[in-house]
Amino acid sequence: MPTDRLVLRRPDDWHVHLRDGAMLKAVLPFTAHQFGRAIIMPNLKPPVTRTADAVAYRERILAALPEGHAFTPLMTAYLTDGTDAEDLAQGFEDGVFAAAKLYPANATTNSAHGVTDLGKIAPVLERMAEIGMPLLIHGEVTDAHVDIFDREAVFIERTLGPLLERYKALRVVLEHATTAEAVAFVREHAASGRVGATITAHHLLINRSHLFAGGIRPHLYCLPIAKRETHRVALVEAATSGEGPFFLGTDTAPHTVTAKESACGCAGCFTAANAMELYAEAFEEAGALDKLEAFASLNGPRFYGLPVNEDKVVLERTPSTTPDIVLTADGEAVLPFRSGETTRWTFAGAV
Ligand SMILES: NC(=O)N[C@@H](CC(=O)O)C(=O)O
Ligand SMILES: [Zn+2]
Ligand SMILES: [Zn+2]
């Protein structure tokens, strides 16, 4: 008997780009509708680097929240070569920062102010290890000579392995894992309890051939870029395993249609409008709907040392249609992932 109704503890999204201003107002309702909490990525222009920036950004998020939503934004600090370890640690201890984000300089959208050399932030990393502040990592090398499809695997070997060796107590999340190498690496470190990985819905559903199906598909372009099918299969296996280190992080990353459909289109898939429906589809295809709650609602809080959400939500096995387009108050348009298409599942809200 196929399951027609799935009840789970309210999920959290451990990797979200909410942006700011009119875009924030347009996209936040989608995330707040489905998720209890979300890790808010700090790659604004200018980036959220100091505790005071995060306090102000959190206020703008809460002000943009529609009535009746109990949503908690978990703020992060954008690490730069000049990060002030004192301010960062104070922000963590005061409960403003949940974690800090490492963008290797120029690895992805709005990462120009990122870290150019890990040696430059050694005191910051030491401090984070000491106080148990998680380091969230965009795990790709930026060396232009490394093939774009290999940048995550090379980062793991060249940078992530040595980083964990050097800082024995540092807790890290390899964000938006896209490769079999990432899955294997996370599993090798599972016993230590200090390595986690988020997995997006789109990387569970598409491989690199989808980027070029019938023509170039700018709305499927994100970083790290989707890899070949064997990697997608490895990610599905990891996400549906129920294992603690793997948890939900959509990496929903809205860009305007103009910015995406351009001679040099921006990286990012906007998956907030149908996030849980997409995950349900991927888990159903793997015959693992019974593992969705661990991945979406239990493993993340455990890694971050937070309680699980108290309330429950329902996913129904009835088709729903993803909005064609989302408009911002200043007239910009954003195209959701699978815009206008039907998904087999419907997120039906709280029980
Ligand atoms: N994932 C993406 O392709 N883009 C993200 C940045 C990021 O998470 O790397 C964005 O901010 O647009
Ligand atoms: Zn990233
Ligand atoms: Zn991201």
Which descriptors would you attach to this protein?
alpha/beta; single chain; TIM Barrel; pyrimidine biosynthesis; eight-stranded parallel β-sheet; three-stranded antiparallel β-sheet; 11 helices; 351 residues; binds zinc ion; binds N-carbamoyl-L-aspartate; 17% strand; EC 3.5.2.3; globular
CATH topology: TIM Barrel
Low-confidence stretches: none
Could you tell me which ligands this complex binds, including any ions or cofactors? N-carbamoyl-L-aspartate, zinc ion
How are the strands of the biggest sheet laid out side by side? 2-3-4-5-6-7-8-9
Work out the strand percent.
Answer: 15-25%
CATH class: Alpha Beta
Overall number of strands: 15
Give the CATH H-level superfamily.
Answer: Metal-dependent hydrolases
Total domain modules: 1
**What CATH architecture do you see?**
Alpha-Beta Barrel
Q: Give the overall average pLDDT.
A: 97
Shape estimate: globular
Description:
- Pfam families: Amidohydro_1 (PF01979).
- The modification N6-carboxylysine is found at residue 101.
- Its EC number is 3.5.2.3.
- Substrate binds at residues 17-19, 43, 138, 223, 255, 267.
- Pathway: Pyrimidine metabolism; UMP biosynthesis via de novo pathway; (S)-dihydroorotate from bicarbonate: step 3/3.
- By secondary structure, the protein is α/β, with parallel strands linked by helices.
- The chain has a single domain, classed as TIM Barrel (Alpha-Beta Barrel).
- The chain is built from 11 helices and 15 strands.
- The chain has helices at residues 21-34, 51-64, 85-93, 122-131, 151-166, 180-188, 201-205, 229-239, 257-260, 275-285, 292-304; strands at residues 5-9, 13-16, 37-40, 72-78, 97-102, 135-137, 172-174, 195-199, 246-248, 312-316, 320-321, 326-327, 333-334, 342-343, 346-350.
- It has an 8-stranded parallel beta sheet with strand order 2-3-4-5-6-7-8-9. A 3-stranded antiparallel beta sheet has the order 1-10-15. Strands 11-14 form a two-stranded antiparallel ribbon.
- Helix 4 links the parallel strand 5 (97-102) and strand 6.
- Helix 3 (85-93) packs parallel to helix 4.
- It starts with a strand and ends with a strand.
- The mean pLDDT is 97.
- The structure holds N-carbamoyl-L-aspartate (NCD) and zinc ion (2 copies).
- Residues 15, 17, 41, 251, 253 line the site of one zinc ion.
